[in-house]
């Protein structure tokens, strides 16, 4: 077994990107450690999020990572350089889920405030606020063609991202 080293801070979550063979370990104080899954060697340590990092998502195509935090912010990171490229801030509460699209130019986020936001990852603008959930949004995802999104709370909503309307609610 390969041991993945890191700080002594409490680990609050982890994940693995199967395609890039990287592991993401979220630690308590706004730090995310990225390691090579095969060797265990640390590739990057991302620091700078003021809240606890609650969610991590990455794109293989653009090598962008998005981290959502308890302070309502999302930080976008360049995986190659380890540098933060942008901070997105518009949620009224913690961010529980993020999903960059495969092109790397848009990000979905779901929050404890019950909203889903669509972001322009090139300039940081919030393009749309999708509302209707009555509880925390725990997960968001894109359709393959990026025309639709799913968001999950106590219900699941299918969104048309061109018309910015909820097409269907699954309860």
Concise synopsis of the structure shown:
By secondary structure, this protein is an all-beta fold.
Task: Give a description of the structure.
This protein is mostly beta strands and 171 residues long. It has strands spanning 11-17, 22-27, 31-36, 42-46, 53-58, 64-69, 73-78, 83-89, 95-100, 106-111, 116-120, 126-130, 139-142, 148-152, 156-160, 165-170. The strands form four sheets. It has a four-stranded antiparallel β-sheet, with no helix packed on it. The protein starts with 10 loop residues before the first strand and ends with a strand.
Strand runs, count: 16
**Helicity level:** under 10%
Beta-strand content estimate: over 45%
How many alpha or pi helices?
0
How far is the N terminus from the C terminus?
Answer: 42 Å
Q: What shape does the CA trace take?
A: globular
Write out the strand line-up for the largest beta sheet, numbering strands in chain order.
Answer: 1-2-3-4
Task: Give the key terms.
171 residues; mainly beta; four-stranded antiparallel sheet; 0% helix; 53% strand; globular
Architecture blueprint of SSEs:
Layout: E1 11-17, E2 22-27, E3 31-36, E4 42-46, E5 53-58, E6 64-69, E7 73-78, E8 83-89, E9 95-100, E10 106-111, E11 116-120, E12 126-130, E13 139-142, E14 148-152, E15 156-160, E16 165-170
Antiparallel strand pairs: 1-2, 2-3, 3-4, 5-6, 6-7, 7-8, 9-10, 10-11, 11-12, 13-14, 14-15, 15-16
């Amino acid at each position: 077994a390969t041991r993945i080293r890191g700080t002594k801070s409490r680990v609050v979550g982890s994940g693995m990107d199967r395609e890039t063979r990287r592991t993401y370990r979220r630690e308590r104080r706004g730090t995310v450690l990225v390691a090579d899954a095969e060797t265990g060697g640390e590739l990057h340590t991302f620091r700078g999020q003021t809240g606890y990092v609650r969610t991590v998502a990455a794109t293989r195509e653009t090598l962008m990572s998005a981290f959502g935090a308890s302070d309502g912010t999302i930080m976008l990171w360049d995986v190659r350089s380890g540098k933060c490229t942008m901070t997105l801030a518009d949620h009224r509460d913690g961010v529980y889920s993020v999903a960059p699209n495969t092109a790397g130019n848009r990000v979905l986020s779901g929050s404890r405030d019950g909203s889903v936001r669509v972001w322009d990852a090139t300039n940081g603008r919030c393009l749309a606020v999708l509302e209707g959930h009555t509880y925390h949004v725990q997960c968001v995802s894109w359709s393959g063609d990026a025309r639709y999104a799913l968001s999950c709370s106590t219900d699941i909503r299918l969104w048309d991202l061109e018309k910015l309307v909820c097409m269907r609610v699954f309860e």
